[in-house]
Design brief:
Strand 5, helix 7 and strand 6 form a beta-alpha-beta unit. The longest helix has 21 residues. The protein has 14 helices and 15 strands. The chain is α/β, with parallel strands linked by helices. It is globular.
Length: 439
């Protein structure tokens, strides 16, 4: 005979404590404190070829233990250094704050590594996340599966601490988490930037940019341009090089017109970040007359360039920049000396490349005629560019414009011929006229 059910008493109304238990758990760590460690580890990726320039930039910002590597620079310093780097770096693509680092053998090891990070201490559960994994010689088969395991670890950490969890947004997440794997080591980073740092905020409409902003700024810094001599972009397109030069010339931070992911962290201190924004080793200054010169044959390009300059300099400041619309080989000499830095068409199709190479001699003749005494620099994917314009480059620097393998060719322009006269043999008869030499 089955036992009767045990008598039950009427359910008591939930107490205020139990009724708000989920809410209590969801807010238990809202009052988070800023990182207490004196030294944090960071990694700043950048366009390949600009690692040295970025290392110099980070040194000037106060970074320690700087370690350039292919595609970026590792560095250390207080947490606020990461904020300063986001705001002031002209070359970095992102600023990644290291959260965990350890050896691994399987995806489960990486899961446990990510699970040990106190993610709820860093950001709120209503924010969205995205996890991305990159690797060099990792034995694991699927990087997407690694990203999934790290996402699971973050979600599980939130569920253990509170009654809610972040959702995934692969296009515009609030928080980006990067995982980097070597053959035996996994490192997990939180991106302090949010959107890539080359997105300055001044490019609001207009033509698509063939150059990323941090590549343009990096080339200017690579060539030692600090706003102290005239700059000409003969094929300026949407004005990326000129606008980055304007920011350098007036000492305006590249991050002054945008927001950052670190502003959404629990312990973000708006007043302290305001001090970082206002602190500068060099006072801001007005743009000088006859310093920046831009040209393009396309009227829409000139109009877009003008808008970008107005976005960073204001209407009055943009008037100080000389913009012309004509063929590059018709530009008159803008100053006695200076730096030409430009991004000519690459000729991605064979017929376009053939037309470009037929045009190169005219460009070379213009360089010879108008820019003696100048340093002329061209970034291009066409390795035949130097022979096409008829000059031997004094330097050629490998750079990547996105995934495109390019070279930054530098030419020191001069008057007349640089060829040294052939020495005369004894007796004053030119060597080529001597019978023995002819034979």
């Amino acid at each position: 005979m089955p036992l009767p059910p045990k008598p039950t008493s009427p359910a008591a109304p939930p107490s205020p404590l139990s009724r708000n238990d989920d809410q209590q758990r969801a807010t238990i760590i809202v009052k988070a404190k800023a990182p207490s460690k004196a030294i944090e580890k960071f990694f700043a990726p950048c366009p390949r070829g600009l690692e040295g320039v970025l290392a110099d930039e980070l040194t000037a910002l106060g970074a320690q233990k700087i370690e350039p590597t292919d595609g970026g620079v590792g560095f250390s310093g207080p947490y606020e250094l990461g904020q300063r780097a986001c705001y002031w770096s002209r070359v970095a693509s992102r600023v990644l704050w290291q959260q965990a680092d350890a050896e691994y053998r399987s995806e489960d090891d990486i899961y446990r590594l990510a699970r040990a990070v106190d993610w709820p201490h860093l950001f709120a559960s209503h924010l969205t996340i995205r996890v991305e994994t990159n690797a060099i010689r990792s034995p694991l088969r699927s990087l997407d599966f690694v990203s999934l395991k790290v996402k699971d670890a973050i979600v599980d950490k939130f569920r253990a601490a509170m009654n809610s969890r972040p959702s995934v947004d692969t296009s515009m997440p609030d928080m980006r988490i990067f995982v980097f794997l070597t053959a035996y080591r996994a490192t997990i980073y939180l991106d302090l930037a949010g959107e890539a740092l080359f997105k300055r905020g001044y490019r609001r409409d207009g033509l698509a940019a063939p150059l990323r902003e941090n590549l343009a700024a990096g080339m200017l810094l690579l060539k030692g341009w600090r706003g102290d001599k005239p700059l000409l972009d003969a094929m300026c397109g949407s004005g990326t090089i000129l606008t980055e030069a304007a920011l350098i010339a007036v000492n305006r931070a590249p991050g002054s017109q945008r927001t950052f992911a670190f502003e959404k962290l629990r312990f973000f201190d708006a007043s302290r970040f305001k001090e970082i924004r206002e602190a500068s080793p060099i006072a801001s200054r007005a743009i000088a007359e006859k310093l920046l010169f831009g040209n393009d044959i396309n009227p829409a390009a000139i109009e877009t360039t003008r808008r970008h300059l107005e976005n960073v300099l204001g209407t009055e400041g943009a008037r100080a920049v000389t913009l012309t619309q004509q063929r590059a080989e018709d530009i008159p000499r803008p100053a006695e000396n200076g730096l030409l830095l430009t991004n000519p068409p690459y000729g991605e199709r064979l017929d376009e490349l053939a037309q470009l190479r037929a045009w190169y001699p005219s460009l070379g003749a213009w360089l010879k005629r108008e820019l003696s005494g100048w340093t002329a620099c061209f970034i291009t994917a066409d390795r035949e560019f130097p022979s096409g314009v008829g000059f031997k480059p004094s330097k050629k620097t490998p750079l990547f414009n996105g995934a495109l393998d390019c070279r930054l060719f530098e030419f020191q322009m001069y008057s007349g011929s640089k060829r040294e006269p052939k020495p005369l043999p004894t007796g004053g008869i030119p060597l080529e006229h001597q019978r023995a030499h002819r034979e």
